[in-house]
Every structure is written in structure tokens, then in C-alpha cells.
Design goal:
It comes from Desulfitobacterium chlororespirans DSM 11544. By secondary structure, the protein is of the alpha+beta class. The protein has one domain. It is built from one helix and four strands; from the N terminus they run E-E-E-E-H.
Amino acid sequence: MYIIDRFEGDYAVIESGDRQTFSLPRILMPTAKEGDVISISVAIDDNETKARQERVKNMMNNFFDE
């Protein structure tokens, strides 16, 4: 469980169940207010990860080939 503890400028300070805090950009939750309970999930974008790896690989190949 995560609770919005407060807002500090452009960031929301989030408190976890074990009372640790971290900040997230306020823009990610435009209608949220202090005291709201939020859920957070993370998803890995495999396609974008592969594309990024290819871009980096190409940059490295171009750098070392010259």
C-alpha cells in the first residue's frame, strides 16, 4: 500500500507500508490529493528495450569502426 503523504513542488512524496518515502512526479497523478492510497505497477517494455539496445550497439560500432 502506498499513500500520498504530501506534495512538494512538482513531486508527490509517497509513503510505503513500512514508512519509507520516495518521490514521484506529480504529473503522473494529476487528480490525486494528500492521503490518497495509490497502487503502483511496473512493466518492462521489451520492444523498446530491444530497440534501445540496437541503437547503442550501432553507436558503438560506428564509434569504434572509425
